[in-house]
C-alpha cells in the first residue's frame, strides 16, 4: 500500500488539475429543464443537481469565467500526504483496536460530539459513549469485511480544513467520508462544521 500511495497521489493530483482546467460552465439556457419533458426530470436532477445555483448568468467561453476559489497558502501535495498518513493511522487503530491512539487522532469537538449519548442515538448509533462508538466502528468493519476505502480526492476548503471523498461501488461517494482539521500543524479527524 505504501509503495502505491505516492503513485495514487500523483494520479489524483493530475486528475484534479486536468479536471479544473477542462471544467465546462453551463448557462441556464443550456441546462435542460424538467418542465421541457416531465419524463426527464429524474435524469435532469441526476446529471445537473436538484437545483441550479442562483448566480448571475454567465456567457462566453468557459475560459473567460473567473473561478471563485479561496487562495490557499499551503503545499496541497504535502498536506494531502499528511492526511493520507492520518487515514492509515485511523485504519490501523480499527484493525488493532487501539482506542487510545484513535482518540489522539480526533479533534476535541469530534470526541465531545461522539461522547454525547443523545447525539449518538439521534444519529442511529447503539452506543452510550465514545468508547462504545469506537467498538461499533471496529465491529462494523470486521462484520462487513470493510477494507480501506479507496480515496477519490482531497478537497481543501481552507488552509486548515479538508474533505476526503472515497470511492464506493466504483463511483465517488457524493458526500465526504472524512473531514480533517489542521491544529498546530497536525491533521486530525474532525466534524464537517468545524473550522469554519
Contiguous helical run count: 7
Biggest sheet record? 5 strands, antiparallel
Q: CATH architecture of the largest domain, please?
A: Roll
Instruction: Decide which structural class fits the backbone.
Output: alpha+beta
**What are the secondary-structure elements, in order, as H or E?**
HHHHHHHEEEEE
Globular, elongated, flat, extended or rod-shaped: what is the shape? Answer: globular
Tally of distinct domains:
2
What is the radius of gyration?
Answer: 20 Å
Classify the fold: give the CATH topology of the largest domain: Nuclear Transport Factor 2, Chain: A
Number of strands: 5
Task: Give a quick rundown of the structure.
The chain is α+β, with helices and mostly antiparallel strands. Helices cover 40% and strands 15% of the residues.
Describe this structure in words.
The chain is an alpha+beta fold and 196 residues long. It has two domains: 4-64, no CATH class; 76-190, Roll (Nuclear Transport Factor 2, Chain: A). The chain has seven helices and five strands; from the N terminus they run αααααααβββββ. The chain has helices spanning 4-21, 41-48, 76-96, 99-103, 108-113, 117-122, 130-143; strands at 150-158, 161-168, 171-172, 178-183, 186-190. Strands 1, 2, 3, 4 and 5 form a five-stranded antiparallel beta sheet that branches. α1 packs across α3 (76-96). It is globular. The relative contact order is 0.11. Mean pLDDT is 73; it is low at 1-68.
